[in-house]
Specification:
The complex is a heterodimer. By secondary structure, chain A is mostly helical. Chain A contains seven helices and no strands. Chain B has a domain at 24-61. Classes of the chains: A mainly alpha, B mainly alpha.
């Protein structure tokens, strides 16, 4: 059966509904945390964005590897999409983390290992996107950015394990068993909602990347008409 | 292990300034607003870029 619309829109609608429910659930239906009070509600957007940022950057790593091995352009489209969506989620992660830090640590930002490694991770992937934007040839851009993505992926385990390697003010990963059921549920609903949203973003961005590849080096907007052509 | 657990407990207490943090809804609304602005903004950018590219490819062809 062929849908009258792109398949990802179905996921997008489910994601939007689940995301709205997750936000209301996290804001109003979950009791305050025993230590952090209501401020802990920020974690219902902060932690899911972190999980999904890591997941999407892992997809970018797999796509980069896939392109270098197979040379299939679909991997490059997916890589382009994953880089951008991963950066978006990391910006969300850092902004919500910064807002959470102010009432809990009394600072907006602290150069401690987790925050510093997350900022380095973000800047590294931004660097890969900048590299993509300056290379005009499709094949060359795909190869260079795949190699750069694999190098950038070093920051993933470094950031993830930074809280264990260098113990500092940022808390270590929490086991679900240590969290009360309503809070755990709020995390899971929001994590699934952000995952579905990220899937919609990835699919839409993939289509844009595929169309750009087809157009080659053509600019996104038509060239203005010359006087003699008018 | 015991020493590690104690360090964690101290870190948590320090983070919460020695007690439970009450209120601070301004920060909570701020974080949720930032989330919506970023996600809706990115959605709009995807829609706009898709339309521009379709228009561009239509002219090309």
């Amino acid at each position: 059966m062929k849908l009258p619309f792109a398949w990802e829109h179905l996921i997008g609608v489910i994601a939007l509904l689940l995301f709205c429910y997750g936000q209301v659930f996290g804001l109003f239906m979950v009791p305050p945390d025993a230590h952090m009070g209501d401020v802990a509600r920020i974690l219902f957007v902060h932690v899911p964005s972190a999980w999904n940022a890591f997941f999407v950057f892992t997809i970018a790593f797999v796509c980069a590897l896939g392109y270098l091995i197979s040379g299939r352009k679909g991997f490059d489209h997916a890589l382009e999409a994953a880089l951008e969506v991963g950066i978006l989620l990391t910006i969300l992660l850092l902004m919500t983390g910064s807002i959470f830090a102010k009432p809990t640590w009394d600072v907006w930002w602290k150069w401690e290992p987790r925050l510093t490694s997350s900022a380095i991770m973000l800047m590294t992937y931004v660097g890969v996107v900048v590299l993509r934007s300056v290379v005009q040839d499709n094949e060359r851009r795909a190869v260079w950015s795949s190699a750069a993505t694999i190098l950038a992926s070093v920051t993933l385990p470094l950031t993830y394990f930074s809280v264990q390697i260098w113990r500092s003010i940022h808390q270590i990963q929490t086991s679900p068993a240590d969290i009360d059921a309503p809070l755990r549920m709020a995390w899971r609903i929001n994590a699934l909602a952000v995952l579905l949203l990220a899937t919609w973003f990835l699919a839409r961005r993939w289509r844009i990347a595929a169309r750009r590849w087809e157009l080659g080096d053509a600019p996104p907007l038509p060239e203005p008409l010359q006087p003699e052509e008018v | 292990m015991e020493e590690e657990a104690e360090t964690e407990s101290i870190t948590l207490q320090d983070s919460a300034a020695g007690g439970r943090i009450d209120g601070k809804w301004g920060y909570i609304w701020g974080a949720y607003s930032v989330t919506w602005v970023l996600l809706v903004g990115y959605t709009l950018s995807l829609v706009l870029r898709g339309r521009l590219l379709r228009r561009s490819s239509g002219v090309e062809r």
